[in-house]
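Could someone model D-mannonic acid with this protein?
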Amino acid sequence: MTRLSSATLAGLPAAIRRPAYDRSRLTPGIVHLGLGAFARGHLAEYTEDALEKTFGAWGIVGASLQRPDQRDRLKPQEGLYTLLKRAPAGPELRIIGSVLDVLVASESPAALVARLAAPETRIVSLTVTEKGYCHDPATGRLKADHPDIIHDLANPATPRSAVGMLVAGLKARRDAGLGPFTALCCDNLPSNGHVLRGLVRDFAALVDDKLAAWLEANGAFPATMVDRIVPATTDADIAEVAKLIGVEDAAPVIGEPFRQWAIEDVFANGRPDWHEVGAQMVSEVGPFEFMKLRMLNGAHSSLAYLGYLSGHETVAEASGDPVLARFLEGLWAEIIPTVPAPQGVVLGDYAKALLARFQNPAIRHRTWQIAMDGSQKLPQRLLGTIRERLKAGAPIEHLTLGVAAWMRYVTGTDEKGAAIDVRDPLAAELKRRAEAAGRDAAALVTALTGIEAIFDTDLPSDLRFTKPVAAHLASLFEKGAKAAAASLG
Ligand code: CS2
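Reply:
Sure, complex below.
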């Protein structure tokens, strides 16, 4: 079968939307670190829309920090790929042209540093997932003992980590007399711009004090809230897209129709006209971020653990289970009082819309995929909310069931006795601690809450937290996830 490329674009079925600008005139202005499915389904589509509307020198050069597979899939297609939006009513297809090239940092870190230092690079955006920041999720500070950070401090010209890469690029720009690029964090971290600024500053200070001061004075790190459900692409998706577009696309992205992007409008050197195409440029991202991290991601993670343990493969199945749907309602009732509503948003309506998005039967988002990296996700998704509820003396029954379900999940054995493939940067430590505690719920809670990088030092000694978690965990061991959720009423 012929491959998707600029030569085959014209022959695609007429109903398929394709770049409506002159792609041959597009030059790069954005480097994106971590060009996975999410960025190609979110930032790249907003950028595509902005290019169609007002154009500009805003093509994207993507970079994979480790693996070459995105590059290998996209290069033969000249960066073109299909975005397949799955609504309950049926799919909508669009070819995205905003990605011009893909680099692989592990093969040639110096080439990526050079691209970051190029005068035309004005924005460096990132989706490297929570663990990609080499920070301590409980405090947001750089882990100076992280192997990649140790490597990058010793080899500053050939960095491996995202933070090391940003600092190398910024340093090269400063040395060349250029201004900095804007570093745009698009990951699900709380205060993501602020956290990234702190990480870059901490790293820069270890390299060169003057660089840290230059960044403090000139750097731009806008905060953002990003949202679109984009499950990993499967072979079945690839086959379906080939059928629909009539040519082979090795790198389609599947997403829900909904998308949202709130951005703090503080850029060092311009940006695409994202505000013309639906992005919300705001002075305070905080309320958007709390709403999304706590209500969407907090519910997603809780549902992923309970759903996986109940035998549900996807979020649509899990949230379609009446017991778990009721659990979600109770969970949102606990979360909502901790969330300041962004202007014009009714949080109860937001929760209803979330349930409908989760239940979208056309999206197959695996509970296992969302369950990944829980140690990096729990602090901002559930634990911050729990701290605020405790301060207010408010109930945390549902929130603590979410935490207990994570603990049950990381024991590595499901309710039928089968092994769970637990993916987490702390997987080995979680396993060791879980094995030592066995099925003793109280011992397991003590063992896992003892990981300071996740629970900090306050929660492990707070009986108002550890007691309900242990009670839930005992019930998860005895009755299973569904019965434990049902018993909440
Ligand atoms: C999910 C998110 O994988 C996960 O942990 O909760 O990727 C979620 O789908 C997105 O944040 C939605 O915007």
